Amino acid sequence: MKSAKKGDWVQIHQILLKPGERAPQVPEDTKKVPLELWIKGIALHDAEVGSIVEIKTSTGRKVKGTLRTVNPRYNHDFGDFVPELLKVDMQLKEILFGGDIDE
Amino acid sequence: MSKDMSYAAVMGRKNEIMKKAIGIDFSVFESGSISFDYEKMMRETGYSLDEIQKIQVETCVGNTPLVELKNLTKLARKLAPKGKGARIFMKDEAANPSGSFKARRAATSVYHAKKNGYKGVLTATSGNYGAAVASQASKRGLQCIVLQECYDSRMIGQPEILEKQRACEAYGAEVIQLSVGPELFYYFLTLLEETGYFNASLYTPFGIAGIETLGYEIAMQFREMMGKDPDKVVITHAGGGNVTGTARGLLKAGAKDVEIVGASVDLSGLHMASDKDFNRKSFTTGHTGFGIPFATLPDRSDVPRNAARALRYLDRYLIVKQGEVFYMTEALSVLEGLERGPAGNTALTAAFALAQEMDEDQTIVVQETEYTGAGKHPMPQLTFARENGIEILFGNPDDDVPGKNIILPANPSDIKLRDFDLEKVRASYIKNCITNNKVNEITKDDFDFLIKETKSDSKFVGDVLAELNVKIK
Q: Which of B159, B273, B380 lies at the smallest CB-CB distance from A26?
């Protein structure tokens, strides 16, 4: 979705610290990148993805940031099938119960 | 006039912000030098075991089953020398409302926040504790914000952390996700100032006291089943709270002879604040990246005095490898019918190896499990590792190089005992105390404190101090 309507559940993005502003103890690779932040909430007005939008979060805070997505989905899942794990399972059953379990 | 919100200014207001957000004046327990009165802090700011049991019953926390893992014991005995192979038991902490022992820790924190009139609770964690605080807050009708260190600079997040985000949101919490970096703490402070919420830190006396019921229940349930105390309790060790709370609970039950064994996953060589290393870890907790820094410098936490002090209780510390934990997670599932999350099986993995050096008539309790699901499961975690260039191989787990490969044991007999030298950890704790306090002379109180802090004796502490050229007044 390219734009959000007032009342939509959205995710916004902010840059909290630019690369030059990172804490002194941060390792070199992390110093080269900004400290970023993502928050979700209800859009308080219509907005285009990439533009600034104000949201109300689930605790009632009002926060402004760049609109990233509308109705952000959860992308994590059970991953690819990992055949090595099946091998482990078969090995364990073989050692403990021996042979074919059905027999 | 608006407040200065720069990094330096906010960090400068840290103590003032924390005092308001926790409601404890830690200075009353301080001696002015290295030592502080730990037991007084736990007594006066925490809750009694009785009170905690009542608080936890109100929100369905605790009283989880203690189960015997008969098939894993059988497997251990097949691999062990004749007459060896202790009976393995496990406390199924996944049965808590938010799916882990962290519910105990959160229950007391959230209760305390509510009792003291805070409108909400705020916590910084990418782990199970976030979901636990969110779940307890919803039950007590408080607002909840969870701050997660979640993504690298490509906005790629570990599946385990993404699942925790989903869980927190499922419990109605606001989740704020950040990219990698310790400055999360700066933002955490700004939020405490903005909201006036309670800091449901992992390391307050209430949080740690909340875990005491776990140790207490283990003693009571085990006595009911076996008529005695277990020989060893194995505890996954990260920030130190799990070890501290469980051990204190066992002591409160009078189980004084139980050996307290900590276990962590070896993630040596990976920098915890590195954008590049962040997604090369396959464990987000229970690992040496937390376990050792927190044991050797507990007061690095987000409270002035950390109530989690693992070295006070640890008798032994075992290191397991990532591939071994994934292997044992499969074993728990296919041999015991218990599908549980990998990180919670760190202690199980150590216990499986440990049981093989113990006699058959001895007993060992694995002190936790955690829930599993999308993201928090060997399959998505190994998929993610592969996507990040980590090799998955069968072989000898000792060849495991964190961030490069994950080696699944070619055979369960490849799961080995690896002792981490606690003397080294204790010495390094003492050294940190001396360095951070910038002293070359300590008081007798400090000396006694260091003995208690390291569960050692005057000879050990004396020797370490002599090496550091520190005198006792």
A: B273
Which of B366, B395, B414 is where one domain is finished?
B414
Return the HEC string of B131-160.
Answer: HHHHHHHHHHCCEEEEEEEEECCCCCECHH
As for how many domains chain B has, the answer is 3
| A26: chain B residues, CB-CB within 8 Å | 181-183, 273
A103 pLDDT band, cuts 50/70/90, is very low
B125 and B90 inside one domain: no
Half-sphere exposure of B472 (CA within 13 A, CB side): 15
CB contact under 8 A, A87 and B394: yes
pTM above the 0.80 mark? yes
- Residue B2 domain-assigned (yes or no): no
Q: Is the ipTM of this complex over 0.90?
A: yes
Closest CB to A30: pick one of B275, B331, B379: B275
| B159 and B222 part of one domain | no
Q: Is residue B345 part of a domain?
A: yes
DSSP character at residue B92? -
DSSP H helical ranges for B266-377: 288-296, 322-336, 346-355
| pLDDT tens profile B280-327 | 887 777 888 888 989 999 998 888 899 999 999 999 999 999 999 999
Asked if the Cβ–Cβ distance from A27 to B178 is below 8 Å, we say no
Residue B348 counted as domain residue: yes
* Cross-chain Cβ contact A77/B380 below 8 Å: yes
| Sign for the pseudo-dihedral over CA of B373, B374, B376, B381 | positive
Partners of A60 on chain B (C-beta within 8 Å) are: 143
CATH number of the domain that B382 lies in?
3.40.50.1100
User: Using a CB-CB distance cutoff of 8 angstroms, which residues of chain A are in contact with residue B379?
Assistant: 78-82, 85
